Write the structure tokens for this entry.
Amino acid sequence: QVQLVESGGGLVQPGGSLRLSCAASGRTFGSSTIGWFRQAPGKEREFVAAINWNGNLINYAESLKGRFTISRDNTKSMGYLQMNSLNPEDTAIYYCATGPWTRGARVASTYDYWGQGTRVTVSS
């Protein structure tokens, strides 16, 4: 069993940055892929980024490449999502999840555990 808790969301102005954190408990974290997904109001949950257990495999949503950076620290059981140059279209609830590296780790249904999400609002 893995429990995930996201933090770091909030209100930020366009062009600003946020760093989201995902704190994990459970023995399998260090061997699991971490994925970040987001769900904007009225839209379906979408893939943001994923990193495999040792950081050798990383995928990003094409539209977010260059602005978002995913990372992890297995010694602390933490995952991170650095978000730069934020714009109002990035407003969403952001979720972290863990699971195997399957299908490029882009598909939500392949993940086993999910956090409750942290809200990010980009507005002036």
In short: The radius of gyration is 13 Å. The mean pLDDT is 95.
